[in-house]
């Protein structure tokens, strides 16, 4: 055997039952394993039996071969897990042959499986009441993942857990994390630092505004905030169009507000302030009414007013019109006279990239510009409109500003740092974890004296109610399904710190003003689609306000291997690390046949034969010739005139597919309820 084995680096010995397991290594690789039994002789302990292990069987060898191997070995090591009495017995045997051995700390799991794996204070991983090597700890972690049903966790998530395992050297702490543990040292993924750009702040006393607005501004501020100062220095009050890109809570909304209110007070025309959601429009309408209602007429144009069209709330002659994109677009599509528009503020302009709404916003901007240009040609004292576009998250700001023909005002300051945390949890465990997070946050106060409050984002209205009911501290659901009175009540309660948390869908992500210190993602989906990096950044940006909090905290509650619809290609753990490490997507409006036809139809209704010019200046590439051909084929237009069917389709914002479903249902004698049910079912199947 000795000739076959050759040089021996290490001979490692580990106690097993009444025997010793012997591992022979060369160049760090195991050559073979064997079992050694000792016997007591008059000269002391000596080898009695030596059996080489071959698979499941043992091959007997002459005990003297062990002595020969031991003499060849450069070092002999005894596992620390071997009992002291057996260690002493083995050492006494070696001394009889003038050999020595050192006792070393080793991994028991490795030793039991015939591997020599010494561990040190730097490499040992605590597992229950012992320490094991990193490789065995990783294998134990994989077994726990399999046992918990999360064995298909993606590579990025496993790498995250293994990194934490090596960092903490404690398998138990990582196991606790898999069960929804909230040890902040483990859950913390990173910190997005607060940053400050060096900007010369504009004193409000130097602004040349209408006296009423000048007085209001000077009463509220001594200087403008940095992003506001940059906008003023780059021609805000000279009527220059601007794209303002800046993080949440940096004051960009006031940029558009100052420009629009000032021009309205000077008699140059009204301000349109446009937002994507009814909840945002309601809040802005209330804010503007309170702030400027004594001097200017304020009205609102949202979904209900465009559908009912009874004019009870909407006054087209008002000085300030707050509206949703669709609310104002409906007015354009139906030929409403909006009067002289001096300023158009479009908040959340990154909506241009959304599949469903992006093309409609793109078309609405083009139609609104056409409306103002036509009016400018007809009225001598009207100079057209200034456009101010606002967004917290844009991946391609220079390109977008160029396409919008506007000056880019980009300010990258983040007013407070944001800690981002990741923990893993089953969907059923998440409400309990959210409860702990909400309770912990509300029980703390910032240096400014404010309690910590939480926004919980989830993916359905039903889940909003489910989670809010399970929270110990006062909390409320908040979504578009609540009536206006209830939403205002929740906003007021949160602002007064009477609520520890609100649980919401997408409504808050777009900018409803809730001063929260913590954001918790119950899911990383909105409806049946995963969040984009842009949406994710927008939502986590709600955590931490400079006037209230010292920092923001964000928690992602990740269910490994989970998805919320069979159309979702990725799993939640895969999405989590994509979002945390991802780059902001570019704002690009993409047109398929349906979107191109819908916007071309609306442009024909608004501009007739000039529709091609409206199409050409939209951000996305609209195949006008093909779209016109389809509209003729579908009998939505006759020449460049809309048919009654085309007008109805346009007025109700119907995609061609939906229009044909409704027509088919009507011709088939279905009731309106049956038609709606069939459309819902078809959408689910898609």
UniProtKB/TrEMBL annotation:
InterPro entries xref list: DEAD/DEAH_box_helicase_dom, Hel308_SKI2-like, Helicase_ATP-bd, Helicase_C-like, P-loop_NTPase
A Pfam family this chain is assigned to: Helicase_C
SUPFAM superfamilies: P-loop containing nucleoside triphosphate hydrolases
GO molecular function terms attached to this record: ATP binding; catalytic activity, acting on DNA; helicase activity; hydrolase activity; nucleic acid binding
Domain Helicase C-terminal, first and last residues per copy: 429-588
Keywords tagged on the record: ATP-binding, Helicase, Hydrolase, Nucleotide-binding
Domain Helicase ATP-binding: 233-412
Protein name, entry field: DNA/RNA helicase, superfamily ii
């Amino acid at each position: 055997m000795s000739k076959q084995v050759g040089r021996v680096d290490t001979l490692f010995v580990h106690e097993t039952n009444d025997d010793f397991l012997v591992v022979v290594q060369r160049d760090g690789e195991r050559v073979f394993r064997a079992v050694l039994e000792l016997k007591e002789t008059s000269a002391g302990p000596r080898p009695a039996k030596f059996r080489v292990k071959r698979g499941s069987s043992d091959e007997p060898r002459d005990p003297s071969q062990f002595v020969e191997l031991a003499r060849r070995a450069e070092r002999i090591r005894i596992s620390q897990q071997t009992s002291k009495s057996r260690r002493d017995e083995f050492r006494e045997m070696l001394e009889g042959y003038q050999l020595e051995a050192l006792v070393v700390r080793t991994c028991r799991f490795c030793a039991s499986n015939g591997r020599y794996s010494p561990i040190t204070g730097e490499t040992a991983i605590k597992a229950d009441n012992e320490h094991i090597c990193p490789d065995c700890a990783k294998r134990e972690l994989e077994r726990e993942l399999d046992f918990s049903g999360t064995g298909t966790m993606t590579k990025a998530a496993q790498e995250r857990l293994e990194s934490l395992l090596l960092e903490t050297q404690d398998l138990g702490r990582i196991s606790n994390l898999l069960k929804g543990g909230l040890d902040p040292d483990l859950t913390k993924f990173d910190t997005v630092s607060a940053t400050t750009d060096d900007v010369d702040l504009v004193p409000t006393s130097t602004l040349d505004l209408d006296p009423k607005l000048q007085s209001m501004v000077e009463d509220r501020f001594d200087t403008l905030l940095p992003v506001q100062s940059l906008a003023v220095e780059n021609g805000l009050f000279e009527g220059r169009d601007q794209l303002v890109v800046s993080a949440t809570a940096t004051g960009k909304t006031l940029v558009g507000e100052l420009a629009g209110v000032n021009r309205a007070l000077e008699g140059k025309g009204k301000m349109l302030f446009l937002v994507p959601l009814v909840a945002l429009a309601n809040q802005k309408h209330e804010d503007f009414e309170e702030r400027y209602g004594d001097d200017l007429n304020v009205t609102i144009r949202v979904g209900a007013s465009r559908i009912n069209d009874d004019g009870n709330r909407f006054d087209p002659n008002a000085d300030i019109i707050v509206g949703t994109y669709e609310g104002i677009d409906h007015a354009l599509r139906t030929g409403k006279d909006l009067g002289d528009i001096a300023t158009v503020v479009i908040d959340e302009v990154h909506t241009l990239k959304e599949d469903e709404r992006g093309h409609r916003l793109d078309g609405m901007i083009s139609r609104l510009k056409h409306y103002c240009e036509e009016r400018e040609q007809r009225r001598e004292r009207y100079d057209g409109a200034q456009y101010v576009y606002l967004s917290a998250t844009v991946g391609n700001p220079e390109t977008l500003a160029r396409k919008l023909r506007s000056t880019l005002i980009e300010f990258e300051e983040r007013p407070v740092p944001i800690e981002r945390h990741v923990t893993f949890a089953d969907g059923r465990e998440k409400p309990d974890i959210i409860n702990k997070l909400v309770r912990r946050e509300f029980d703390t106060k910032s240096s400014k004296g404010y309690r910590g409050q939480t926004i919980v984002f989830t993916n359905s209205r039903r889940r909003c109610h489910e989670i809010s009911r399970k929270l110990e501290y006062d909390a409320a659901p908040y979504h578009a399904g609540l009536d206006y009175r209830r939403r205002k009540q929740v906003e007021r309660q949160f602002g007064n710190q009477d609520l520890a948390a609100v649980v919401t869908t997408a409504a808050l992500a777009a900018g409803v003003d809730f001063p929260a210190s913590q954001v918790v993602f119950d899911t990383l989906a909105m409806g049946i689609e995963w969040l984009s990096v842009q949406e994710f950044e927008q939502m986590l940006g709600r955590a931490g306000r400079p006037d209230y909090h010292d920092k923001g905290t964000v928690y992602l509650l990740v269910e490994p291997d989970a998805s919320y619809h069979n159309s979702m290609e990725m799993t939640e753990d895969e999405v989590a690390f994509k979002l945390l490490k991802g780059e902001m997507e570019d704002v690009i409006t993409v047109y398929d046949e349906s979107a191109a036809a819908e916007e071309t139809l609306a442009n024909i209704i608004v501009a007739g034969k000039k529709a091609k010019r409206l199409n050409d200046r939209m951000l996305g590439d609209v195949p006008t010739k093909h779209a016109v051909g389809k509209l003729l084929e579908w009998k939505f237009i006759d020449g460049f005139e809309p048919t009654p069917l085309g007008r109805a389709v346009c007025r109700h914002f119907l995609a061609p597919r939906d229009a044909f479903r409704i027509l088919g249902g009507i011709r088939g004698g279905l009731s309106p309820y049956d038609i709606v049910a069939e459309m819902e079912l078809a959408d689910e199947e898609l």
